[in-house]
Amino acid sequence: MNERDRAIAYLERDRLRYINLLEVLRRGSGEVLFLREDGLLLYDEGSLAYMFTAESSQAAERIIALIPRDAEQCVTHQNWYHPALRTRLGRDRGMMVCRQAAWMGETQPELSAFPGELRLMDVSWVPRVRTLYGHDYADGDYITGVVKRGLLGAFVDGELAGFIGTHDEGTIGLLQVLPQYRRLGVGEALYRAMICRVLDHGGYALGHIEEGNEASLALQRKVGMTIGDHLLYWVF
């Protein structure tokens, strides 16, 4: 068994908790930097993120020592070692606390209807999507990457009503529904269709929901996603 296979076996012990790490290994963008029975560190080339879990202080110490001080971002599955991580990174960092949701069903979800149609969007939509999404990190190059992976748009009477895509690390996100098209089932239709698209391409359908975003959690439950009990942490 090679190192990648051993890492997958380690993560499969709790698939829902570690499904984000399984996805980067599946895509081939994750490099195993540390692996033993009490911890794992991956570097994801797609998102430039160091992703890890540590079940002992010894594993945490060794993993954190391997992370460059100028690391772009980290994804951690525990927070008890964050003081040591902050010391390693050498400056204050932002943090987003998330719940992880994943499609754990044996079959794909059913698609849902809304008064319009879904279709893939091309790069001509990048400027408008960037404006509507409105997050600083999502510049033109970032949105172009989303388009290349598959940016799904909802259209009502030929007008853009909303869109959804996948982030660099593989999570489903960027969901936006324009105000005048809300309460028409657009968001649910987009999310169900994107789950199916990810599954059709052999991926794990998963999402990260910022803690406290009850509307997003409700949508996850409505479309049939399973929400994990554990938190994960984006440090950037």
UniProtKB/TrEMBL annotation:
Pfam families registered for this protein in UniProt: FR47 (PF08445)
Domain N-acetyltransferase: 96-236
CDD domains: NAT_SF
Highest rank taxon of the organism: Bacteria
Coiled-coil intervals, chain numbering: none
GO molecular function term, any single one: acyltransferase activity, transferring groups other than amino-acyl groups
Annotated protein name in UniProt: N-acetyltransferase domain-containing protein
Biological source species: uncultured Eubacteriales bacterium
Record lineage: Bacteria, Bacillati, Bacillota, Clostridia, Eubacteriales
